[in-house]
C-alpha cells in the first residue's frame, strides 16, 4: 500500500505502452514512480493467451482490463486499464514506422533504431504463418500488392509478414515486460492507482509549475506524490490518447469553457487540449470457411500505394455468426441470400464455426475530431468524436482497400477456404447485418462501397491525438505554457505510425527516456 506522501524524481502517470518503456529507461539515473490505474496483466489468461483476445475485450466488469466506450460517431471502442496498456489487449502485430514518418516527425533515426531494437529484444517475435495467413499473403500478392517482402519489422510498400508480441507458444508479451530492464532499486509501481489531478504551483512563478499529483488507491484512499527538488524533476503524462488530454483538463489545463463547465480551477487556458482526436477507420469482410482455420491475429499486411493497409485474422468461434441471425435486422425487406443462409444454418448445427476475417484500415487518417469532459471523475470516459470519413480522401482509401479485399477473396489461394456458392456480394450483405456498431444502415450499402464503408466502420484501436506536438507540447514533449510537465504517448501523434502503432509507442517511451537522461546528465543533475 502506498504511503500518504511520497517523493520522486519522475512521476509517470500511466503504465501503458509508452509509460513502461519510459519508466524502465529513466531508472538508469533517477528514482521513478509509475502510477497505473489498472492491475497486472500476468495471471489473466484472457490477456496472456492469444485465444483470449475477444474475451478480454468483451469483459465489461468495473475491474476489466478493457474499458468500453462508444464515440459520438456510434463506433464501439475500448481503452486499456492494465499495466502494459494497449499491448495487453491488442491483436499483437509488431511493425515499425516508415523512415519517411520518422523524418517527418523529426526524430533521430539512429536513436529510433536503437530504441526499436531495445523493445524487440524483449517483446517481438516472428509469427508462425499457418494456413489462413499464408493464403491471405499469397492472395495479396496475386491481387497486385507488390513487391513481396517476406518477414520484416520494417514498413515497406508491398506484402509482408511482420512481427508479433505473441511467442511461439501463443503467450502475449506486453510493454510491462520492458520493466524487466528497470533498476529495481530506483522504481516503484503502484497498481490500481487512479490520478485525480496534477498539482501546480502558481504563486511566485513566472508560469505554472507541476510539483505533484493526487491519486487514489483501490479503496479510495487519497495519496500525494511530490517531485523531489531540482530543475530536472518532472511529471510525465503517459495515460494514452484519452487519458492524457482528460487529465490535463481535470488538472486545469485545457479549453477555458470546458474547465468552467465542470467547475475546474483554470491553471492555463489551452484550447488545443483534446483537439485533433483521430481514429483509423477499419472495415472488414467475414469469410465463412469450408475447412478448419488456425487461431490467428494480425500477422500479414498488404501496404498498398493508395494508403490502405490490408490485414487478416482467423478463428473457430462458437456463435460468432449465428448470433447475427438473432440480431435486429436492419433491412426489414431483405432476406439473407439463400446460399449464405444454408451456410449459417449448417453452422447452427455445429460446435465449430471456422471463419476468416480480412480487414483494411486507412493510413492517417485525415479526418479528426475532439474530446470533451463528461464528468470530473477520472474513472469516467470523456466524450469523444472522431468524425470518421469527414475527409473524402479517407473514404476513397477505404473503397480502394475494400476493392483489394474483394480481389484477395476471389484469388486462387483463398478458393480452398470458400464455400463455392457464396459470392462476395453475400459476404457484403452478411456484414451489414452484423451488429458491429451503432450506426444506421442504408440499403445502398449493398451496392455502394462508399456507403458500406460509412455504415460498417469499426475501430482497430489506433486512435490518437489530443496533445499534439506544436499545439499542446513542444518538440521535446514539454507541455506548452507550464513547467515540469511532459506528455509522452500516442496522444502526441498527428497520424498513426505504420500499419500498427504499438511498436512506435513503445519505442517513443525508450527514445524520450534516453533524451531526458541526456538532458539530465548535461545539466549535471545525476
UniProtKB/TrEMBL annotation:
Glucose-methanol-choline oxidoreductase N-terminal domain boundaries: 240-254
Gene3D superfamilies for the chain: 3.30.410.40, FAD/NAD(P)-binding domain
Alphabetized UniProt keyword annotations: Disulfide bond, FAD, Flavoprotein, Signal
Name of the protein in question: Glucose-methanol-choline oxidoreductase N-terminal domain-containing protein
Disulfide bonds: 398-453
InterPro entries assigned to the protein according to its UniProt record, in alphabetical order: FAD/NAD-bd_sf, GMC_Oxidoreductase-Related, GMC_OxRdtase, GMC_OxRdtase_N, GMC_OxRtase_C
Binding positions (FAD): 17-18, 82, 195, 461-462, 490, 501-502
Entry keyword annotation includes Signal: yes
Source species, domain of life: Eukaryota
PANTHER family: GLUCOSE-METHANOL-CHOLINE (GMC) OXIDOREDUCTASE FAMILY PROTEIN, OSJNBA0019K04.7 PROTEIN
Family matches, as PROSITE patterns: GMC_OXRED_2 (PS00624)
Cofactors required: FAD
Keyword Protein biosynthesis (UniProt): no
Family the UniProt entry places it in: Belongs to the GMC oxidoreductase family.
Pfam family of the protein (one): GMC_oxred_C
Amino acid at each position: 500500500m502506498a504511503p500518504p506522501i511520497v517523493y520522486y524524481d519522475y512521476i509517470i502517470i500511466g503504465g501503458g505502452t509508452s509509460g513502461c518503456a519510459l519508466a524502465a529507461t529513466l531508472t538508469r539515473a533517477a528514482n521513478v514512480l509509475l502510477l497505473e490505474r489498472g492491475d497486472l496483466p500476468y495471471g489473466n489468461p484472457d490477456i496472456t493467451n492469444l485465444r483470449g483476445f475477444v474475451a478480454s475485450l468483451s469483459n465489461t466488469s468495473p475491474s476489466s482490463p478493457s474499458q468500453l466506450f462508444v464515440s459520438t460517431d456510434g463506433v464501439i471502442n475500448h481503452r486499456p486499464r492494465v499495466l502494459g496498456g494497449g499491448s495487453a489487449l491488442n491483436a499483437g502485430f509488431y511493425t515499425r514506422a516508415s523512415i519517411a514518418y520518422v523524418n517527418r516527425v523529426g526524430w533521430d533515426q539512429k536513436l529510433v533504431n536503437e530504441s526499436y531494437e531495445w523493445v524487440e529484444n524483449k517483446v517481438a517475435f516472428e509469427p508462425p504463418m499457418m494456413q489462413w495467413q499464408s493464403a491471405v499473403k499469397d492472395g495479396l500478392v496475386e491481387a497486385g500488392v507488390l513487391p513481396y517482402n517476406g518477414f520484416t519489422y520494417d514498413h515497406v510498400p508491398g506484402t509482408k509478414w511482420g512481427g508479433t508480441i505473441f511467442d511461439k507458444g501463443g503467450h502475449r508479451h506486453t510493454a510491462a515486460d520492458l520493466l524487466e530492464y528497470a533498476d529495481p532499486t530506483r522504481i516503484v509501481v503502484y497498481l490500481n492507482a487512479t490520478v485525480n489531478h496534477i498539482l501546480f504551483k502558481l504563486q511566485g512563478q513566472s508560469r505554472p509549475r507541476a510539483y505533484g499529483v493526487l491519486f487514489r488507491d483501490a479503496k479510495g484512499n487519497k495519496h500525494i506524490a511530490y517531485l523531489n527538488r531540482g530543475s530536472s524533476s518532472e511529471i510525465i503524462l503517459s495515460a494514452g490518447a484519452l487519458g492524457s488530454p482528460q487529465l490535463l483538463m481535470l488538472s486545469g489545463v485545457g479549453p477555458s469553457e470546458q474547465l468552467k463547465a465542470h467547475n475546474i480551477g483554470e491553471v492555463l487556458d489551452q484550447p488545443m487540449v483534446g483537439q485533433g482526436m483521430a481514429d483509423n477507420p477499419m472495415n472488414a469482410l467475414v469469410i465463412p470457411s469450408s475447412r478448419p482455420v488456425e487461431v490467428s491475429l494480425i500477422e500479414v499486411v498488404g501496404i498498398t500505394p493508395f494508403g490502405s493497409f490490408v490485414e487478416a485474422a482467423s478463428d473457430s468461434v462458437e456463435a460468432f455468426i449465428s448470433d447475427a441471425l438473432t440480431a435486429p435486422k436492419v433491412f426489414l425487406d431483405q432476406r439473407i441470400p439463400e446460399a449464405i443462409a444454408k451456410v449459417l444454418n449448417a453452422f447452427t448445427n455445429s460446435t465449430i464455426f471456422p471463419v476468416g476475417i480480412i480487414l483494411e484500415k486507412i493510413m492517417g487518417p485525415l479526418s479528426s475530431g475532439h474530446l470533451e469532459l463528461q464528468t470530473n471523475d477520472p474513472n469516467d470516459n470523456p466524450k469523444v468524436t472522431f468524425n470518421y470519413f469527414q475527409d473524402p480522401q479517407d473514404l476513397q482509401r477505404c473503397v480502394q482497400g475494400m476493392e483489394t479485399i474483394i480481389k484477395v477473396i476471389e484469388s486462387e489461394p483463398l478458393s480452398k477456404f470458400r464455400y463455392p456458392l457464396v459470392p462476395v456480394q453475400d459476404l457484403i450483405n452478411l456484414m451489414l447485418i452484423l451488429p458491429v456498431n451503432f450506426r444506421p444502415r442504408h440499403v445502398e450499402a449493398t451496392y455502394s462501397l462508399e456507403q458500406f464503408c460509412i455504415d460498417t466502420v469499426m475501430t482497430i484501436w489506433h486512435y490518437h491525438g489530443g496533445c499534439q506536438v506544436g499545439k499542446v507540447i513542444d518538440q521535446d514533449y514539454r507541455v506548452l505554457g507550464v513547467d515540469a510537465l511532459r506528455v509522452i504517448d500516442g496522444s502526441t501523434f498527428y497520424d498513426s505510425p505504420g500499419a500498427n502503432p504499438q511498436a512506435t509507442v513503445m519505442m517513443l517511451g525508450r527514445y524520450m527516456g534516453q533524451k531526458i537522461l541526456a538532458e539530465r546528465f548535461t545539466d549535471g543533475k545525476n
